[in-house]
């Protein structure tokens, strides 16, 4: 995976972490890197406005400044509670006999796990170089 895609993929995890922290009842979808950047699908209890993007982006930058480390973790550290889309993907991968991996963003000083996600990998080691990004817009996703 190219360096930009690794950076963008890790940034999508920061987006997931920030949204989950700000909106604890959110249902996580999927968050890949793209050629242009990254995105993450979420199901919110009520629609977000464009003005809320700046709040999410601010928390992402705050999290990134902590130089969080991306670490592969064991499956038993992950809870599927309130994550039906992750559980559906997990069940599909398991039925197909595919490798299933989980990654966490971990604070290297406090060892606090900030965010854990079902993910195929391809990340930068830590968030120290994730500085220049902008959340541009909201879009609808339909399952």
TrEMBL record:
List keywords of the entry alphabetically.
Ligase, Protein biosynthesis
EC category name: ligase
Task: Name the residues that span the membrane.
Answer: none
Residue ranges of every copy of the Threonyl/alanyl tRNA synthetase SAD domain listed in the record: 114-136
Lineage top rank: taxon:
Bacteria
Gene3D superfamilies in the record: 3.30.54.20, Threonyl-trna Synthetase, Chain A, domain 2
Protein name from the UniProt record: Threonine--tRNA ligase
